[in-house]
Known about the structure:
The protein has twelve helices and 15 strands. By secondary structure, it is of the alpha+beta class.
Amino acid sequence: xxxxxxxxxxxxxxxxxxxxxxxxxxxxxxxxxxxxxxxxxxxxxxxxxxxxxxxxxxxxxxxxxxxxxxxxxxxxxxxxxxxxxxxxxxxxxxxxxxxxxxxxxxxxxxxxxxxxxxxxxxxxxxxxxxxxxxxxxxxxxxxxxxxxxxxxxxxxxxxxxxxxxxxxxxxxxxxxxxxxxxxxxxxxxxxxxxxxxxxxxxxxxxxxxxxxxxxxxxxxxxxxxxxxxxxxxxxxxxxxxxxxxxxxxxxxxxxxxxxxxxxxxxxxxxxxxxxxxxxxxxxxxxxxxxxxxxxxxxxxxxxxxxxxxxxxxxx
Length: 315
């Protein structure tokens, strides 16, 4: 591999924020995985790295099994990059993986990405999908208004909450209330069934709360009877889609999640038509709750691997 084909990777840090955010202004995908908030907050778990290569942002991380590295589809740093450049960078990604004894593996690939890869590598792809990892995408305005017959039950939850807590307040997360959000997270964690996944998620949430300003996260909280009972944090994925990465609420308070979802959607800037509320991970109750909010799109994400011929060559 020649010098200009080599991709130099480094772990995603706060110093990468501005450049990654600028790249996301040209991001054609709505996957939650691209948000700087997710790349940084989950970096400890996936060992997430980034390379700015030939005018494109390339993200590499460890697959969940930890057996091999994987990539996201590369995205351009500017709007005038030719489509051929994507194919060049994909080839460099492929060569990098092969030099380390692995086939090229790209995860969280949307349907548009799969189509592009099929054109670039016809008959050389193995595509895997899992409904558990599909993102739920909603219209921001519909989440904010809860309009329409299909959201009547959700409106009922919100109305009961407002009736019971008429003096509730929505607050932006700030230095004045972030410690109370920490406390709610600790209480939620203590009441949860302990598992490695929950523990890792707790570490992610605490990183987000501790460094919300430096990361650039937008956060909101609900205060009722003098206490923070719910909070949410998120960040842009692309110019049209905002990602809600974290939402926690006191499960003993009826309507706490519903009011948090609606109020946060009201405060997301109107430039965002869509809101991505991420996957359900196959959790039955979470799937029901996400479907009940009536997504405008269930964004399937695929794992794409290069296939080999009998001689072990990729083409």
